Amino acid sequence: MVRTGSASTAAGPTLAVVAREAGVSVPTASKVVNGREDVAPETRRRVTEALDRLGYVRRPRFDAAKTPGLVDLVVHSLDTSWSGAVLHGVEAAAHDAGLEVVVSAGLTRTRGGRPERGWLDKLIARGSSGVLFNLAELTASQYAWLEQHRIPFVMIDPVLEPPSGVVSVGAANWHGGVTATEHLLALGHERIAVIAGHQRKMCSNARVAGYRSALASAGLRHRPEYIRHAGFDESVAHRRMLDLLDLPEPPTAVFVCSDRMALGVYQALAERGLSVPGDMSVVGFDDLPEARWIAPSLTTVRQPLSEMAATALRLLVRMMDGERPESTRTELSTRLVERSSTAAPGDRSAC
């Protein structure tokens, strides 16, 4: 709802209208809009809800041409080797471009389900010239907010298919799924399962589609009971592997759609007294450091995380300069890294 009348213009409500709606002073409302910390949580909540309810659009205070040296990177979390690879790629490319990077972990929501405005308002207040989102799931209102404020942004491996016109960088996930499955087929496996991530996530669906395509090309029909989803969670992957082992005809090989989930698979196999690759061949996806550390070392599909992040930063710099990429989607190639976790079916000599 947007009120009409002298206190509100065609461009949207004034800050005074927002302050009156929230029952606070204009200076207090201004503090919330500008990301100041010296506001009580309950007061911030009321002002934030009023901002969203009235559709207040904060006018940019910065001139990107005068502050070209700062960009924001929003990552899903900061405690994984995945994030470390992304940070490495962004930092290297930002150094080459003469940019500084502000890193944030995630975009939160209010208890009512609306996107939290605090981070977005701070973005304006500190004068960032652009944003990189990694593994982010933005809402329609967050996309609209970025568009309203004319802030260039690029998605790195977006969770869902982004809206038309949004620039994103990812890996060739479908081809990676094909490559992993073809490797197992070449070793002689026909009973090949897949433990995928989230059913609604772009990369997970593409990897499963590649798996199914490779089976079809080999003249094999995929078995629905061999397709399990674990949400990229190590403990859930552990349970899904146990479920596969309890089938009347369990698989002889499994394509696990992330290296982290492969750790859970290894644990499940060990609990059943089964060896890798003698009893079960395992292929992962990502080529994180964990793939080299575990025993036996994990055959996996490498997706170039640091290169993806660096590519996204370079695209963002072009957009900050007023250019528009020729394509909104950039995919970097994946490749199989063979190690010690795969062998011919029942080849206990490989242990």
- Mean pLDDT across all residues, rounded? 86
Widest beta sheet: strand line-up: 4-3-5-6-7-13
Share of residues in helices: 40-55%
Shape, per Cα inertia axes: elongated
- Per DSSP E runs of 2 or more residues, the count of β-strands stands at 14
User: Distance between the terminal alpha carbons, to the nearest Å?
Assistant: 66 Å
Extract low-pLDDT stretches: 1-11, 60-67, 108-115
Structural class based on helices, strands and sheet pairing: alpha/beta
Please, how many helices?
A: 12
As a whole number of angstroms, the C-alpha radius of gyration is: 24 Å
**Most strands sheet:** 6 strands, parallel
Order of helices and strands: EEHHHEHEHEHEEHEHEHEHEHEHEE
Strand content: 15-25%
SSE diagram, text form:
Blueprint: E1 8-9, E2 12-13, H1 15-22, H2 26-33, H3 41-54, E3 70-75, H4 81-97, E4 100-105, H5 117-125, E5 131-134, H6 140-148, E6 153-156, E7 168-171, H7 173-186, E8 192-196, H8 202-217, E9 227-229, H9 234-245, E10 253-256, H10 259-271, E11 281-286, H11 289-293, E12 299-302, H12 305-320, E13 329-332, E14 335-337
Parallel strand pairs: 3-4, 3-5, 5-6, 6-7, 7-13, 8-9, 8-10, 10-11, 11-12
Antiparallel strand pairs: 1-2, 12-14
Helix pairs in contact: 1-2, 1-3, 4-12, 7-8, 9-10
What does this 3D model show about the protein?
This protein is an alpha/beta fold. It is built from twelve helices and 14 strands. The protein has helices at residues 15-22, 26-33, 41-54, 81-97, 117-125, 140-148, 173-186, 202-217, 234-245, 259-271, 289-293, 305-320, and strands at residues 8-9, 12-13, 70-75, 100-105, 131-134, 153-156, 168-171, 192-196, 227-229, 253-256, 281-286, 299-302, 329-332, 335-337. The strands form three sheets. Strands 4-3-5-6-7-13 form a six-stranded parallel beta sheet, with helices on one face. Strand 8 (192-196), helix 8 and strand 9 form a beta-alpha-beta unit. Helix 4 packs parallel to helix 12 and helix 9 (234-245) crosses helix 10 (259-271). It starts with 7 loop residues before the first strand and ends in a 14-residue tail after the last strand. Residues 1-11, 60-67 and 108-115 have low confidence and may be disordered.
